[in-house]
Amino acid sequence: MKTKKPVNYGLLLYAAALLAAMPAKAQSQLDNYIQEGLNSSQSIKQQNFLLQKNMYALKEAKSMFGPDVTFSTTYTKADGGRTIDFPTGDLFNGAYATLNQLTGTNTFPQLQNQQIQLNPDNFYDARFRTTLPILNAELIYNKRIKTQQVDLQQTEVLLYKRELVKEIKTAYYNYAKAVNATGIYESSLRVVEEGQRINARLFDNSKVNRTVVLRSQNEVSRITASLTTAKKNAESARYYFNFLINRPLTDSILLDQVATPPTQEQLLGNNVNGREELSKLKLATDINSNLTGLARSYLIPKVGTFIDLGSQAFDWKFNRQSRYYLLGVSLEWNLFSSGKNSNRVKQTIADREAIAAQTDYIQQQLLTELKVKHAGMQSALAQYNAAQSQLKTSRNYYADELKLYKQGMAIYIELLDAQNQWIDAQLNANIALYDTWIAHAAIERANASFNIKP
């Protein structure tokens, strides 16, 4: 009756190793945490603010095609400066004197020569100016570039999200691995404590020697220390996971259950065409093409129109004579710039060649990464299959040794060896199971197969 309990604990241990794991198909809790992390990540919020900035820059570029209306006014008060001499007296005084003699009156006065100041004194000029571009290649290319920069930032946001998803999944699996390891050690502790109690009673009945009792006590101490370490590891894993999803570090984490590694259907995607890194390089190439066009836009003349509606007069007068309108068309054509424009074009062409070389390198790098991740998955699956075989063998070995020990046909050291192999096999199976899911998250990141919800 006393040796029957360890068998039951062993069965409970095996059940815990299989059931307290992550789900293979329905990962509802993990999906919820991923969405929570994507919504609360400060890094992603920062990237979204940059996206908003680029969208406003695009709106600004579009508004440059519309009319601009400005109001301006000037007022001048002047004295001195250049003048124009007007000989009013010399021209009219002689004629006026003759007319006064003929009429016998002083009706025609004598005039002084005048000095007219060129600088306007007590003069204002107020106007509304409306300008509208008719042909401006720079504005066209600028709008295209701003549009592509918005797309580039949207891709950058997706890149941050995809990397965060991988980190959340990896941290989640590591936490589940640590929690299950804690459960295994807790069950193991109950087993060794029961063994210690049985061996102490056998020693009291002179059935075993003191060495067996001391060894039992050592096993209890060893498993207790391992349990403490496992709890600390689980605590650290919980802190890091909550940090990733921007929650209080001590919040509890809900775990789903699974007993199998990812299926072959969950490892689809052997290309890297969906990687945001390549999309960014494609957008960089398109932006470079428009930058080249912008650099060459000097070949096209700029044509615009304007109209002024205003009033100008002395002494703040405002009447029909002071009001005016002025309509015009402007043309600007850069004919010579000492090679500045051609050198600017050559710079953009050099940038294009650099982007092309970088694209080839990055694509090969990403393909290599994907192959390495697939190799890691194959290794993890091999480790899992080996751990499952070892788990089954060690369980049978422990059950056989326990039966022999009960019958007095095996010594305690043999039972202890079987027991330790059984505990180690459960720990290895737990690690191997979650390593397959961590490898799956790495492949999912490498081939960009995770569906990120907007």
UniProtKB/TrEMBL annotation:
<keyword id="KW-0472">Membrane</keyword>
<keyword id="KW-0998">Cell outer membrane</keyword>
<keyword id="KW-0732">Signal</keyword>
<keyword id="KW-1134">Transmembrane beta strand</keyword>
<keyword id="KW-0813">Transport</keyword>
<dbReference type="InterPro" id="IPR051906">
    <property type="entry name" value="TolC-like"/>
</dbReference>
<feature type="signal peptide">
    <location>
        <begin position="1"/>
        <end position="26"/>
    </location>
</feature>
<protein>
    <submittedName>
        <fullName>TolC family protein</fullName>
    </submittedName>
</protein>
<comment type="similarity">
    <text>Belongs to the outer membrane factor (OMF) (TC 1.B.17) family.</text>
</comment>
<dbReference type="Pfam" id="PF02321">
    <property type="entry name" value="OEP"/>
</dbReference>
<keyword id="KW-0812">Transmembrane</keyword>
<dbReference type="InterPro" id="IPR003423">
    <property type="entry name" value="OMP_efflux"/>
</dbReference>
